[in-house]
C-alpha cells in the first residue's frame, strides 16, 4: 500500500544518496534518533536505500509493543540474528515465541529468582574480595565478567556446569561482540571466510557444544533437581502436549539467556558506579542506607525490598543509561501511526534511551537525580518509563536483573568507594547496549578492614 501525500512522514534531514542516514546511524545514532523527536511523532529515515520509520512518543511505542502488537513482527535483523544464534526467545516470534514464553516464564518468576540470590551474592563477593586498596579496577570489564558468572552459575549449579562456565567466559564474548556487526552487514557477508567470521563461527560451534554437553549430563543424571535455571527449564512441560523442550531448543534458549542477561546488567552496573563517583551526595546517601540496613552483614534477597534509596539509584541509572537503546519491529499489516500510513513490511525503530531522555516526560533529562523516584513524587506513566520494554517481548529476566543489580550494587558499595581515574573522559558507546567506554576506577576501602561481611 503506498503513502498518500497527506499521510507521509517527514524525512529526517541529512540524507545522502545511496547511504541514506547510514553515516549518522553509524557514528552518532542516539543523538540522531533523539533529534527526530523535534520533527514529529513519526519520522522517516533511510538505512542505505531502505526506508524505516522512527517513532518518538510513549503512546506510539505502546501501540507497537502492546495495543497493535499483532501487526508487527521482529523483522529482518532478528531473522538474521536467529540464523546466527538460534531460535531462542529473543529472536523468535508469533505462536512459536508464545509457546516458548509460556514454558519458560516460571523459571524466571520472583520465587524462583530468590533461589539464585545466594549464588549471585557469592559471585559478587568473590570479585570484591579480589580487589586491593588503591588498585585501578577496570569496572566495565569486571561488571561484564561478573554478570556472565552470575547468569552462568544461576543456569548450571552442578560440577560439570562449573567447568562449562570457564568455557562460556572464553567464547560468549566473541559472539556478543560479533553478532551486531554481522547482523547489520550486507546479506551473505557472514559466510565470507575472513579471520573475524572464522573466529565467530568457531566460538558459536564451541559454545553450542559446551551447552549441549551440560544439558546431556543433566538429562542422564538422576532427578534433574538442582535448584538452578537449567533444571527448571529441563523439568518444564508445554501445556498443550505435556512434553519437555527438545535438547536443541533448550540449547538455543540457554545461549539466548547467556547473551541477553550479561551485557545489559553489566552496562547498567558500570554506569551506576560512574554516576556515584560523579554525584558525591547520591553516593553518601546510598552508603548511609547500606550501613544502616546491612550493618556489615551480607545482602540477601529480602534486602531488595528494604534498600529503597539503592533502588532509586538503580532506577535512575536505567532511565539515564537505558541499556537497550535501539529496537526494531516490522509491520505485518498496514498500520496508521499518528495519522501516518506505514506500509506492510516496513521497519519501525524506537529507542528506549531516547524515550527516557525526553524533556516532555522527564524534566532536565540529562541530570542524574535518583529523587525523581522518591516516594511522594509523581510517578511517570508506565508507557514513558519501560527499560525492560512491555508487551509480549517484555524482558523475561526483569526480576533476575533487579536481584542481580541490587545485590551487586549493595555488596560492592558497602565495602568499596570507586573513584574515577583522573583525566579520563567517559563516553557513551552505542554497541549492542549503551555502554560506557573503558571505565577505569580506583578502589578505596570504605572501612579500615575490607574483610568479607558475615552471612546470616
Ligand atoms: C538491566 C538489565 C536488563 C535490561 C535493561 C533488559 C532489557 C530488555 C528489553 C528492553 C527486552 C525487549 C527486547 C525487544 O523488545 O525486542 C528484553 C528482552 C529479553 N531479555 Fe532482558 N534485560 C535485562 C536483563 C536480562 C536478564 C538478566 C536476562 C536473563 C537472565 C534477560 C533475558 C531476556 C530475554 C530472554 C529477552 C527476550 C524476551 C522475549 O522476547 O520474550 N534480560 N530485555
Automatic annotation (TrEMBL):
InterPro entries: Cyt_P450, Cyt_P450_CS, Cyt_P450_E_grp-I, Cyt_P450_sf, Cytochrome_P450_Monoox. It comes from Fodinicola feengrottensis. Keywords: Heme, Iron, Metal-binding, Monooxygenase, Oxidoreductase. SUPFAM superfamilies: Cytochrome P450 (SSF48264). Belongs to the cytochrome P450 family. This is Cytochrome P450. The lineage of its organism: Bacteria, Bacillati, Actinomycetota, Actinomycetes, Mycobacteriales. Gene3D superfamilies: Cytochrome P450 (1.10.630.10).
